[in-house]
Amino acid sequence: MKTALGHIRVLDLTRVLAGPWCAQNLADLGADVIKIERPGAGDDTRSWGPPYLRDEQGHDTTEAAYYLAANRGKRSVTLDIASPDGQEIVRQLARQSDVVLENYKVGQLKKYGLDYASLKQEKPDLIYCSVTGFGQTGPYAQRAGYDFIIQGMGGFMSITGERDDLPGGGPQKAGVAISDLMTGMYATIAVMAALAHRDRTGEGQYIDMALLDVQVAMMANMGTNYLASGKPPVRWGNAHPNIVPYQTFATADGHIIVAVGNDGQYRKFVDAGGRPDLAQDERFATNPMRVRHRDILVPLLAEMVKTRTKQEWIDALEAAGVPCGPINRLDEVFENPQVQARGLRVDLPHPTAGKVGLVGSPMKMSATPPRYDLPPPLLGQHTAEVLADLLRKSDEEIAELRARGVI
């Protein structure tokens, strides 16, 4: 199968989520990704469980589900980069790679001779991407960056969560590590752009990715709302500051989202609920009036919605042309016919579990679709293979390196 990046090799020195997410994207697109891990321990997320992947007998393996999420398509090589021999192997692998990814603390790899300036001497057209919490410059550069903290510092939690004047109001983080994931996505884009530039000019370059930079950038219209008005946006929970009703409602057996965009849709909504009087009332007849009287209207709508089940409401509102949707648990997500039709679950053979279920790439490409050749690797699974094939190490040399704890 043709792949977009089948000609690219990536040396992945990252761990946890932001860097591995970038590397997995590149692997999905065909790149040969070599993941360097600590001997005996590996990526921190291998032990971030439960849950763990289960073997064919139903017993837990050593592979945490967290680790499985970000390491598909890679080859694992265990290597002690604190040792001179380990550093030399990294340099040798870098010479045969197009891209190096790392997420060590600022300056940490320089003492090993594995920073961009050092590896550029080995391979002038190398693309080298560093992922840190705060970037390589600025007063916070030496600080460790954690997604949760970055969500707070970057403004996301100031607009996420229930309104302060309602029960449960206050700042709320996202349910997934969004600054990590978005940094991985931005890093993927930057690497692809650098590869395109290299292919045109022969010039490599350094990429400095920071979680805080990404979090601020991804505030999108909320950031420009502030810059335009001088007023920081506030939390609205699942409601909308300018449209009513545009929020979640509890049904008899779950929750739904109702996204009324105009007065006609509002009339259809309340008609479907058997409350046409809520459209005839002048306080609720137009959106500006509904926004003004939301504290009166929303409790009435909430009482109306609770009289039916989630599916009854979805069926009724879809038939009426009112934008709506369920709030699904993940079991419902993977049972959804649209999710199944789009191939968002993939099952790959696994050396200890028999097979492993993973979330497929959302990138749908007609000529070079994502590939799923390799499951997330066992720790050090490909060490001997990579050293023999790429560096021409003999069995005796590999055994000697292993005996000394280098690999």
TrEMBL record:
The organism sits in which domain of life?
Bacteria
Pfam families associated with the record: CoA_transf_3 (PF02515)
Gene Ontology terms, MF aspect: CoA-transferase activity
Q: Which UniProt keywords apply?
A: Transferase
Q: Under what name is this protein listed?
A: Formyl-CoA transferase
- Native species of this protein? Noviherbaspirillum humi
